[in-house]
Amino acid sequence: MLIFAGILFIAIGILNILNPNFAWQLREGWKVDGDSEPSDTYLTLTKISGVLITVAGIFILIIGILT
Q1: Can you give the pTM of this predicted structure?
Q2: Is-contact 13 53, C-beta < 8 A?
Q3: Which helix (H) or strand (E) holds 36?
Q4: Most buried residue, 5, 20, 40, 55, by most Cβ within 10 Å?
Q5: CA triplet 1, 4, 25: central angle to 5 degrees?
Q6: Where does the chain cross the membrane (predicted)?
Q7: What is the pLDDT tens value at each position of the chain, 67 positions in all?
């Protein structure tokens, strides 16, 4: 189960790093009418959180493999 969780975390983290606009559309984009875009700060923080989630996923994956 830890291996699956690690792979899931890594996938979500990579998605946040490569396409932070997608995460914004899922969380906030549907709430606004018309064209709206996330701020640069939001995109940067989403990329940083993607890196942290990816690192956590790698750690969880390693623990799952070793147990």
Answers
A1: 0.86
A2: yes
A3: none
A4: 20
A5: 130
A6: 47-66
A7: 999 999 999 999 999 999 999 888 888 888 888 788 889 999 999 999 999 999 999 999 999 999 8
